[in-house]
């Protein structure tokens, strides 16, 4: 490969005594696996750069499934994620690593990813809207097209006060049955616009993306979600009770 590629590290692990194996998300080649030789050595200047959430320029070589990293430059410092937003970023990384096929280009998704990480780094409130928008973008790029604004049974436009049941490969059909697959027209409109003004629409969006992503993730749990569940009780234990 001749040119430089914009990239982020999704995940890294030791490979031999001095090297790292990295999963990269690149702008024009999608998910790429590379070996960074000598990156773990004491004298390596790459230790700080080859971390998640650091914008990179990279070049690699080789013809096999696992490439060799030739050059890397950090474009800037790592985007500042900590606490809850760090776990959210790890979730986004794991989602990309699990769902995208090897070396399949997703240039538009790359910028959706960048915007999501930037939103997490700048978040003053809940990180949930940024996560939901990225999940919906990911589903769209995977070809998972869903019409949120029309009833799949009649073709008529949705009504905010009506209830609709989600059916895979069909869409949303007006229904009087209320269960985990039920959504109000108002909730569907929020999904279509990717605008979640309150907790009700955010919860509905999370419920939908969990259902829609399940076929791609299979039955294997996400490690980032397990880590976050461990983090929440610890955080609560460290937070003193408020005195009313």
TrEMBL record:
Record keyword Zinc present: no
Pfam families the record matches: RecO_C, RecO_N
Keywords: DNA damage, DNA recombination, DNA repair
Any GO CC annotation of this UniProt entry: bacterial nucleoid
The DNA replication/recombination mediator RecO N-terminal domain, residue ranges: 4-76
Gene3D superfamilies the UniProt entry points to: Nucleic acid-binding proteins (2.40.50.140), Recombination protein O, C-terminal domain (1.20.1440.120)
Signal sequence, renumbered to the chain: none
One Gene Ontology biological process: DNA recombination
Family statement: Belongs to the RecO family.
Described function: Involved in DNA repair and RecF pathway recombination.
PANTHER family: DNA REPAIR PROTEIN RECO (PTHR33991)
Identification of the protein by name: DNA repair protein RecO
Organism: Mixta theicola
